[in-house]
Design brief:
Length: 134
């Protein structure tokens, strides 16, 4: 697989390009300023790089609260408007339980157990039933 690794400029969260997918790895807490910068960086990177997918790896995140849930949903909504699909990878069981308990839905987001599985999901044929509808 030919991967073009290039970094987009971000304040705190690196956005890497792997072929036609952006990879974002969240570690720890994401504060307001960093979240806004990340949303802008992702949208600009999608347009500039013409990627078709975004993978957000949250395996390093201990807690997903309503703020982070909203940030993830907003990134996915922006990506969808720019013709890219979003997959959240590496969600811990406790995080999934918390999201359900909070009643948070993440519209426009697909999930995968690992970054590799997320990349495979995005690489699936456009006619694949697992593909996010546009």
């Amino acid at each position: 697989m030919n991967h073009d690794l290039s970094r987009a400029s971000t304040a705190h969260v690196p956005v890497l390009r792997l072929g036609d997918v952006l990879l974002i790895t969240l570690q720890g807490d994401l504060h307001d300023g960093a979240a806004e910068q990340l949303q802008q960086d992702v949208a600009e990177s999608i347009v500039r790089s013409r990627v078709t997918g975004v993978v957000i790896d949250i395996s390093g995140v201990e807690i997903v609260d309503s703020f982070l849930g909203r940030v993830l949903a907003e990134i996915a909504a922006s990506a969808r408007l720019l013709a890219a699909r979003t997959v959240v990878a590496g969600m811990r069981p406790a995080v999934a339980i918390t999201l359900v308990e909070l009643g948070l839905t993440l519209p426009g987001l697909r999930t995968a157990l690992s970054t590799e599985a997320a990349m495979e999901l995005l690489a699936a044929s456009p006619d694949d039933p697992l593909r996010e509808p546009r």
